[in-house]
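The instructor's notes for this session suggest beginning with a concrete chain rather than abstract definitions. Hand out the sequence below and ask the class to guess, before any prediction is shown, which regions might be ordered.
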Amino acid sequence: MALPIAREKLGKAFFLLSIIIIIVLAALLFGKRFGLFFKKAPFSLKLVRIIGSKEGLKGPAGVAFGKRNDIYVVDSGNSRVVKFGIKGNYIRQWGIEGKTSGEFMVPLFASAYGNPERIYVVDSGNSRIEVFKPDGRFVSEWGNAGNNAKTKLSEPTFAGFAYDKLYVANSGADDIIIYFKDGRFYERKGKAAILNANAGFKSGKGSGHGLKTGAADGADNKNGKNGKNGGNVSGAKPAASLRKAAVLADIFKKPVGLAFSKKYIYVSDYSLSKILVFNREFDYIGSIGTSGDSGYQLHHPVGIVYKNGYLYVANYGRSILTVFKLNDGFNVVKTYNFGTPGSGRRNFNHESNISISRGGKYLAVADTNNNRILIYRIFGAS
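After discussion, reveal the predicted structure:
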C-alpha cells in the first residue's frame, strides 16, 4: 500500500511543479509585452464628475485641490469660496461681497498650502491676498496696506507656492511679486521693479530682445488625439541684472497665471496669448505656443498647471483645454486639445483656471461661463 501512495504524492508534486513552471514562463514571455502595453497607454482625460450646479455657482473663476483632495471653488460672481469633497458633496462656504477682512470683491483664484493647511484667496477687486483656515476662519491678509508702492498689489489674478515662496501674478501692474510664506515682501519682477530701481529708465528701448517661439501648429483636433510636434521654446538669457529686468518689462504684457516645475517657471500672458518660460532666477528662456484661433494655438490663456511633464493650459479665448507634453521642461514634443465651445457635458464656455490633485490623478476645471466645475481623471501622464 505504501508504494501506490508514494507514487500518488510524487504525481501531485510533478503536477504542481508543472503549473509553477508554466506560470513563470508565461510571466517571462508576456510580462514585457504587458509592460510595454501599459507604458504606451495614450494620454487622455476622462470626465468623471460635474459639481456646483446645485449650489448656484455664478462665474466660478478659480479652483484648487486641498491636501485631502477637497476642492475649493472661488465663486467670483457670488463673492465667496465654496468647499466640496472629491465626490462633489458640498461641505461649506464662506465670504460675502465687501472690503473688510474676510470679504471679497471679484475673487479670482485660490491655493491650498501648508501644514496645517491654509487657503490663500486672490481678492482681485481689493488688490490683496487673504488667508483662511480650511473651515473658512480668517487668518490674515496682505498686499493692499501701507504706502510702499513696491510691495503693493494691483488687481492680482493668481497666487501659488514654489521654492518656499509665494508667487503672485500682479496683473494690474503687468509684473510678478514674490513673497515669503508669511506675506513679507521678497522681490518684484517686471516693469515696476525697474522703475523703482532705476528712475527714468524707459523699458523696451535697445534691449534687443523680443518674443520668439518655435512652436508649430498641428491640425485642429477637438477630441484629444495627438497633434504634431509642438516645437521648442527659443530665446536668449540676458547678461546682467538690469538687462534681465529690462527684458522682463519687455516680455510681460498681462501675466495672469503661473505654473512651476523643478527647474522652470511658466507664466501665461493673456495679452500675448503665449506661455513664457523662465528659469528659477527668472532668466527668460523663451515661449510656448503661438497666438491664434486654430490648431493648437492659444487665445488669451489664463490658468496653467504643470505636472509629470505635461503643461495644462486653460485656453480661455477658445473655450478649449490645450495640453503640451514637454521634454526637459520646455521642449514641446506633443500637443493635445480637449473639449469644444458650448454648454454641453463635454463643452467649455471660457474656462478660467485649473488645478491638479497632489497625486496627479484628477484635473479640476473652472468652467466659468457655464457656472460649474468639471472633474477629469487623467490617464497616461504618470
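Then share the key points. Helices lie at 2-39, 191-197, 241-251. The first helix runs from residue 2 to 39.
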